[in-house]
Amino acid sequence: MSNATTAAHGDNYLNHEKGLWSWLSTVDHKRIGLMYMATVLTYFLIGGIFALLIRLELLHPTQTIMDANTYNRMFTYHGAIMVFLVVVPAIPTTLGNFLLPMMLGAKDVAFPKLNLASYYVYLAGGLFATASLFLRGADTGWTFYTPYSIRTSGTVILVLTGAFIAGFSSILTGLNFIITIHKLRAPGLTWSRLPLFVWATYATSIIQILATPVLAITLALLVMERVLRIGIFDPAIGGDPVLFQHFFWFYSHPAVYIMILPAFGVVSEVIPVFSRKPIFGYKAIAYSSFAIALIAFIVWGHHMFVSGESEFAAFLFSLITMFVAVPTGVKVFSWVGTMYGGSIRFNAPMLYAFGFLELFTVGGLTGVFLATLAVNVHLTETYFVVAHFHYVMVGGTLMALLAGMHFWFPKMFGKMYSESCARVAWFLILVGFNVTFFPQFILGAQGMPRRYWSYLPEFTLLNQISTVGSWLIAAGFLFTAFYLIKALISGEKAPSNPWNALTLDWQTPSPPPHDNFPVTPIVTDWPYEYRPDGAIVPIQGAAPLPA
Amino acid sequence: MSSTHESAYPVHHVGHHFNNASDEFEAAKQGMWVFLVTEILMFGGLFVAYGIFRGMYPEMYVEAHHALQMKMGALNTIVLITSSLTMALAVSATQRGKKQRAIGMMAATIFLACCFLVVKYFEYSHKFHEGLLPGAFYSNTEITNPKAPLFFSLYFMMTGLHGIHVLIGIGLISWMILRSLRNEFSENFYTPVELVGFYWHFVDIVWIYLFPLLYLVS
Ligand SMILES: [Cu+2]
């Protein structure tokens, strides 16, 4: 807390240099994190508008606002933008960039220039993908299955190139983070004292560097299919379209954990702070991330149970997929164990952590349904699958992102937002989410297929409930944008540590100075010694925190 | 060249976020290793595709591979292995502060890399001439197996991706020569040259796998 006095000079990373160019050319990880945040949120807005239009079209069983071809392009762009440009980079590039060096007591990531380059690579990928919208567009779905993606007209190549380029941003960010964690830890910050967000980021980075190159070569080959008709994925000259599915899911299944592991990291930081109790099962939470990362690479076949893989392979993939539930369950029980007997405070970040637990658990358990072979055959390509992965990706990743954004907002901008507004928005989003997606489980179980522009009249009521839910979510997000922007402009000044948290990022002024810490901290303990009446600050010479 | 002041080494500034130069060097080296792992996985996709189709159509591979010019492939293998040697010598010369020798060795590496590409150019134009092209552009009538276009798709994708890596290597080594001429390296600071060396050895190793897989099928 004594550090706070240095903030009196008013020099921080936001005003250290001025002007637009100082932002565009910055190598400061904190500023790069904010640039990513602005860009990711812009794509989230675009992808979200597509989602609203999709739901609006499904208000009536026949045409509501658009024709079938437009609808196909809509869900393709909704999926591609949300997966490749929003949910995959959401937490690592925004919170990860901002927090990782701060949690390590470092001044920056290992390769600051590479970090800036990654941002522009990401931006370029996004521009390629969205540019195709203004041409003839793509209607393949975000999965680009062959041979349809080879034959369909439209600007599929641009979308593929966009995803290909954005992939390199993901690879380079992962590489940067791994070396940062190995090389730039503050004195005394041993592996067993690392914050769990850092552990989660490490496991995520490993998946990013191992899986994404496979996506890169797969998309490159698909581009070549369209340009040169190389035939590797095309049955017409002896190629194998199922090979494309194998390659695609070898990346895209682990990608699910690129999305969710950082979310686990955020929740692991938020829950002990607002429960005022040491985290339960620190090592179990840390290591289970690696168990998940490992299993992630050997379950991809569960996307292909009906694509003609052998029954024996399907059986193995089904079994291994269910094993994912074990390390995931270890985490959920550890979080519940942390809250048990704690003095819980219901601030916005904690509310979002609760939202995460509810939605992610539903998403995870329905994943076990889908991993079950016999059930899967019935549910394949239905709305049950759509509901399942929205509960995981939106309910998991996005809830955690919101938890993290509210938790670290005071640190990032030095301002406080309105707690009561945040509660209203949280309520709208959580209720809206369940109203939108829960009916889709029922629709899917009743046999409504995904990716269709129309449906049978008996599905009308549930579809209309779902569409109304999407408006509630939209209202929640608009309200969130409103009160956060208001806080940026006229929010109360934030203290350096408003939640009395213990990780190093809180042991410096808000917003942090250009070099993160006035003096390099010397770490003496792990950052989870929370007590109902205070906490033990894990750096040398620090006084205990009151609760 | 001898007019440049070998003694006037500008001091390399260690990044403000590192404790010391050796931490910075270690970080850069580890970063390069991780990068090469990602490269292996990217090429890995192509190798897996190669293996799967070889399992599906073994007799087609045998028939199609005769159309490749084995002697040219062998020549290129020798050229690249020699270039790995010259690059290794360039790195060790840089580490010992022998600027002239380092620049000479890097120039030799670039020369050999260009030789590789020239040979590759003749091989490619021969294939174009014979109609041995990827997928739908295939027009050769001498090879009877109807799946043969797949082999040439793989051939062009694998050697093409490798060729792009050779081109990038030439660019990187040229940049190292430029920085060397500007006296940026010394016994105390030679990280970039060493990392480019790693990269170049990796490019060679990929070729050492590609050559037998494509040219020596039996
Ligand atoms: Cu999966």
Can you tell me about this structure?
The complex is a heterodimer of chains A (547) and B (218). By secondary structure, chain A is mainly α. Chain A has one domain (26-537): Cytochrome c oxidase-like, subunit I domain (Cytochrome C Oxidase, Chain A), CATH 1.20.210. Chain A has 16 helices and five strands. Chain A has helices at residues 20-24, 29-57, 68-104, 112-131, 148-151, 156-183, 196-228, 241-275, 282-296, 311-323, 325-339, 348-371, 373-379, 383-413, 419-445, 460-490, and strands at residues 415-416, 492-493, 530-531, 534-535, 545-546. In chain A, the strands form two sheets. Chain A has a three-stranded antiparallel sheet with strand order 3-4-5, covered by helices on one side. In chain A, strands 1-2 form a two-stranded antiparallel sheet. In chain A, strand 3 and strand 4 form a beta hairpin. The longest helix of chain A has 37 residues, at 68-104. In chain A, 57% of the residues are buried. By secondary structure, chain B is mostly helical. Chain B has one domain: Cytochrome c oxidase, subunit III, four-helix bundle (Four Helix Bundle (Hemerythrin (Met), subunit A), Up-down Bundle). Chain B has helices at residues 21-56, 58-65, 70-95, 99-130, 148-181, 191-215. In chain B, helix 1 (21-56) crosses helix 2. The termini of chain B are far apart. Chain A binds chain B through residues 101, 106-112, 171, 175-176, 178-179, 182-184, 209-214, 216-218, 220-221, 224-225, 228-232, 234, 237-240, 243, 247, 515, and chain B through 15-18, 23, 26-28, 30-31, 34-35, 37-39, 41-46, 48-49, 52-53, 56-57, 134-137, 146-147, 149-150, 153-154, 156-157, 161. The structure holds copper (II) ion. Residues 253, 256, 302-303 of chain A line the site of copper (II) ion (CU).
Please describe the structure with a list of short key phrases separated by commas or semicolons.
heterodimer, A: 547 residues, mainly alpha, Cytochrome C Oxidase, Chain A, three-stranded antiparallel sheet, two-stranded antiparallel ribbon, 16 helices, 65% helix, globular, disordered N terminus, B: 218 residues, Four Helix Bundle (Hemerythrin (Met), subunit A), 74% helix, elongated, binds copper (II) ion
